[in-house]
Write a structure and sequence with these properties.
Blueprint lengths: L4 H19 L45 H13 L7 H16 L2 E3 L12 H6 L2 H15 L4 E4 L5 H24 L5 H27 L17 E2 L6 H7 L2 E3 L12 H12 L8 H17 L1 E3 L3 H4 L1 H6 L2 H14 L6 E3 L5 H28 L6 H25 E3 L1
Antiparallel strand pairs: 1-2, 2-3, 4-7, 5-6
Keywords: Signal
Length: 410
């Protein structure tokens, strides 16, 4: 809770007056003044304006962290305590203590809640996609066992609550964009508008979080509450998710993200994962299919240009045909337009971009066909069916790409 500027000035003036009255002001190392007379030989002191005087012991005034639930409760209780009659202050403090203890006994699995993207790794901080951050942190929590750890609600911060709002905004944004894109005639205009509205809400939430981190401590008449730091309460996690989490780790910069693995390497890892005695599959047929796929990947070649190599709007928009045209033009400019690599040596991220280009091109052709049908008077909901058919790719591919860029395979 931030103190109003007017009240802060009044409190500062009263405090400063009290300090000056009790201790007086004397330069460091100056001889004491007795009976208002300076000792002989005392050097005159240079007057320093109060505004220019450095504050050397202000480290404890500003906490540099968002307030916890207990901080909010005690700050509110302290404000009310000032108007409580003196003969009832003891009873009031007892009620506050009981409320704080009751709140501290309520526990929550911390890693089941969204976290700040900057606390996961650099890639999640750069993307700032709440869904990607939640998935990456959740998989890492299952992998390390943190998912079973709980903490007191008293230790949750206001920023943690805002982070839940940011995640909810990211989740609701997808169906909102989908619904806007299906509006006849103006869907292509409404979709980016709706997207920017939700982006603005997230930006506002980030601004509020930054201001809370920069806050200074509010007046508090109560001592910090001692609570158990961590307790373990097992969480039921589906076996498939545990299997997936056991084979990936959160990227820390010292490992190779899944997105940077080659398609041949990824196929080999997938085959080895499936070729286990406990899985009821035909392992001979599995190996035969994997060998056939590896041969296909080695014998077929594609362009070795990635979208981000072009930079600029092509990488920002992420639209397949535009990215392909931009990459091709950049390659020709660099006299490498005909450069190709085997599919087996293509990184997974590049393969996803190739798949995105193929699907976006198909989507574009279907859009042209639907436009022609509407022009000739064919009344068929082709555009709506097309939007629904490509929705998993349109909204799911960026999430998958963000996750594989932020996690490494074991």
């Amino acid at each position: 809770m931030r103190i109003p500027h007017a009240l802060a000035a009044l409190v500062s003036a009263i405090t400063l007056s009290g300090v000056l009255t009790v201790t007086g002001i004397a330069p460091a190392g100056a001889a004491p003044i007795e009976d208002g007379v300076a000792p002989a030989g005392a050097a005159p002191t240079e007057e320093v304006p109060l505004a220019d005087a450095p504050i050397t012991d202000a480290a404890g005034l500003c906490v540099g962290a968002a307030p916890t639930f207990d901080d909010v409760a005690t700050a509110a209780a302290t404000a009310i305590r000032a108007i409580v009659p003196a003969d009832r202050v003891t009873d009031y403090d007892g009620q506050v203590d009981r409320f704080r203890v009751s709140m501290s006994t309520m526990r929550v699995h911390r890693d089941a809640l969204p976290v700040d993207p900057g606390t996961v790794n650099e890639n999640t901080a750069s993307l700032d996609d709440p869904i990607v951050t939640y998935l990456v942190n959740g998989l890492d929590a299952v992998h390390t066992g943190r998912i079973d750890q709980t903490m007191s609600i008293s230790r949750l911060t206001v920023n943690d609550v805002i982070e839940v709002l940011v995640l909810a905004t990211g989740v609701v944004k997808i169906p909102a964009q989908l619904a806007a894109s299906m509006v006849p005639m103006v869907g292509f205009v409404l979709k980016p508008v709706v997207s920017e509205l939700f982006t603005g809400v997230k930006a506002l939430a980030r601004t509020v979080q930054g201001n809370l981190v920069d806050r200074c401590a509010s007046p508090n008449a109560y001592r910090p509450l001692e609570v158990d730091q961590v307790t373990v309460e097992p969480v039921e996690v589906p076996a498939a998710i545990r299997q997936l989490a056991s084979n990936v780790v959160r990227g820390y910069g010292s490992c190779t993200p899944v997105a940077n693995l080659t398609t041949g390497n990824l196929l080999q890892r997938t085959t080895d994962f499936l070729d286990r005695p406990e899985l009821p599959i035909n392992r001979v047929a599995l190996r035969a299919s994997a060998d056939s796929m590896q041969s296909f990947l080695r014998e077929n070649r594609v362009m070795a240009r990635r979208t981000q190599d072009s930079g600029g709007p092509a990488d920002l928009i992420g639209y397949g045909p535009l990215a392909f045209a931009s990459s091709l033009g950049f390659g020709i400019h660099q006299t490498a337009g005909a450069g190709t690599v085997p599919l087996a040596e293509m990184p997974v991220a590049d393969a996803m971009e190739l798949a995105t280009f193929t699907l976006d091109a198909a989507n574009m052709l279907l859009s042209a066909g639907a436009g022609v049908a509407e022009f000739v008077g064919v009344d068929a909901p082709l555009s709506i069916a097309q939007t629904l058919m490509f929705a998993p790719v349109t909204y799911g591919m960026p999430i998958v790409k963000g996750v594989i860029q932020s996690m490494c395979a074991k």
